[in-house]
Amino acid sequence: MEQPGQTVVVTGFGPFGEHAVNASWTAVQELQQLGLGDGVRLHVYEIPVDYRAAQRLVPELWERHSPQLVVHVGVSGLASSVTLESCGHNSGYCRPDNRDFSPCSGCCVDGGPDCLSSVIDMDAVCCRLAARGLDVALSTSQDAGRFLCDFTYFLSLLQGCGRAAFVHVPPVGRPYSARQLGLALRAVVLEMLAQLGPPAPRAS
């Protein structure tokens, strides 16, 4: 387990459906190349579009890295802006994943709360970045879609006591390049870290 500090985990998703190359993973790889500065340890992972894999991987990432923040990134074919999701939902998961599986109960965590919100103020992140003249449009949402995106986000919010975020990106070229998406992610993650403030010191 890593020492507490400015440690951030960012994930993208693997291929599914019409997205043979998932723009979320492309954007995360761009972010990895850019980095988050010398004071931040960045770890990136690709999550399969697989409910059972997500249920296994998300807790492992929190346990392995003890991050200050986990940011999950997904693609939305309907999006024309970079969208910051405010909350994750526990139920409504009927759409089959890449292995043709969906939870029998339709729930992420049986008996869990209906909805969990991030400790990050997504509206504030959007406002602050818009004031800086970011060349990518930003928006917020309270519905991450009841598929792997929402499912993974709920798991992470539960595991991290709200210290998680979800960002939907449009497909590459509709209208933004991979580089623009990577730069936008970098700005978003750094603003989220600034909002969280310095990590709490380890108790002796």
TrEMBL record:
One cellular component term from this protein's GO annotations in UniProt = cytosol
Give the UniProt record's GO annotations in the biological process aspect.
proteolysis
Its domain of life reads Eukaryota
InterPro entries in alphabetical order: Peptidase_C15, Peptidase_C15-like, Peptidase_C15-like_sf
Keyword list (alphabetical) reads: Cytoplasm, Hydrolase, Protease, Thiol protease
A Pfam family this protein belongs to? Peptidase_C15
Could you confirm whether the keyword Hydrolase appears in this record?
yes
**Which Gene Ontology MF annotations are present?**
pyroglutamyl-peptidase activity
- Name the family the entry cites: Belongs to the peptidase C15 family.
Protein name in UniProt: Pyroglutamyl-peptidase 1 isoform X3
